[in-house]
Amino acid sequence: AVGAAAMEEAAAHNGSAAGAGAGAGTGTPAAARPPATPEGMALAYGSLVLMALLPIFFGALRSVSCAKSKNSSEMPETITSRDAARFPIVASCTLLGLYLFFKIFSQEYINLLLSMYFFVLGILALSHTISPMMNRFFPANFPNKQYQLLFTQGSGESKEEIVNYEFDTKDLVCLALSSVVGVWYLLRKHWIANNLFGLAFSLNGVELLHLNNVSTGCILLGGLFIYDVFWVFGTNVMVTVAKSFEAPIKLVFPQDLLEKGLEADNFAMLGLGDIVIPGIFIALLLRFDISLKKNTHTYFYTSFVAYIFGLGLTIFIMHIFKHAQPALLYLVPACIGFPLLVALAKGEVTEMFSYESSAEILPHTPRLTHFPTVSGSPASLADSMQQKLSCPRRRRQQSPSAM
């Protein structure tokens, strides 16, 4: 809920008398910092734009293979129109709840609890992110064993699957490497470790959160458009929470890197919500491009350029007016409007809005709540589950789980 607030926090600090960037948690008062140089600001915001584009681009590519995957541990979460409609309400309640928590309870203890929570999540997300890349570095004769972590509830025909995670020895190595970054972040809260976790969260979000159609994407982006504008322009809740929230829910880059090096502490920031929310819509358009079977990625590249335009406009307006700007105010119209104009020009509006991403996902990744008791290897378990699916008497359509 506060992921979209970091850009607003940075704007609020940049508009101070000292002209300094946001530096929450650094221990140095904003007014005591010298103004950011034009070179430092250009480097910081240019780096933020580049870091925002990387998880969207690669997350969208990985979402295609994720949609076709038969591995239940990589099964995407499908966002329906009902989920999209209630998401701004849930996000608003969460944001207001965090605001009240920070007002009532000690900020130190809350952030300690959040740090431990994101420490575990960050390690898992980073491990999943680097796993495909690390596989190239393992030798061919590496002893790679397969494992499956399966937790169930009940017995017999009423058995329900709680956790079903498949992994191998290579995944354990990636987990160990990610744990090093996790300890570094927990002990130092260094901005590089923060960014590694933030990039991993963003890429995993774009890869694993799937919109089922374009209409759902418009509902989600439209609702969060109103949410972002209200909580930034209407109240100080979002900026207050963003200043108090010490967790890798934002990408940061120092504006004084040229002067202080890696120990710089005058940060410009971009919330992960401003990356993941438009990113899952861009990933949907990539899958729509592939469904057209025209060997072109017109809608994907159009939305990608639209995102760059919207984010650049956000930074420009924030710099000119020295006031907090909700990034989704500019990103949502750009990411929806640009592809829609292309669809109108090509006469493919009907195809765009009739495309159902879930129709391609569900046959490959059925969501079972009941399955037989099977002894033996994970392969035999998968074969038995497949046989259960092929039986007409047992087949029934399951609604995707809520986000």
Automatic annotation (TrEMBL):
It holds the Pfam family Peptidase_A22B. GO terms for molecular function: aspartic endopeptidase activity, intramembrane cleaving. The keyword Ribonucleoprotein does not apply. Belongs to the peptidase A22B family. This is HM13 protein. Signal peptide: none annotated. The chain crosses the membrane at residues 42-64, 84-102, 109-130, 208-233, 267-286, 298-321, 327-345. Its main location: endoplasmic reticulum. One of its GO terms (biological process) is membrane protein proteolysis. Keywords: Endoplasmic reticulum, Hydrolase, Membrane, Transmembrane, Transmembrane helix. InterPro entries: Peptidase_A22B_SPP, Preselin/SPP, Presenilin_C. It is found in: Endoplasmic reticulum membrane; Membrane. The keyword Transmembrane helix applies. It is a multi-pass membrane protein. It comes from the Eukaryota. One of its GO terms (cellular component) is cytoplasmic side of endoplasmic reticulum membrane. Coiled coil: none annotated.
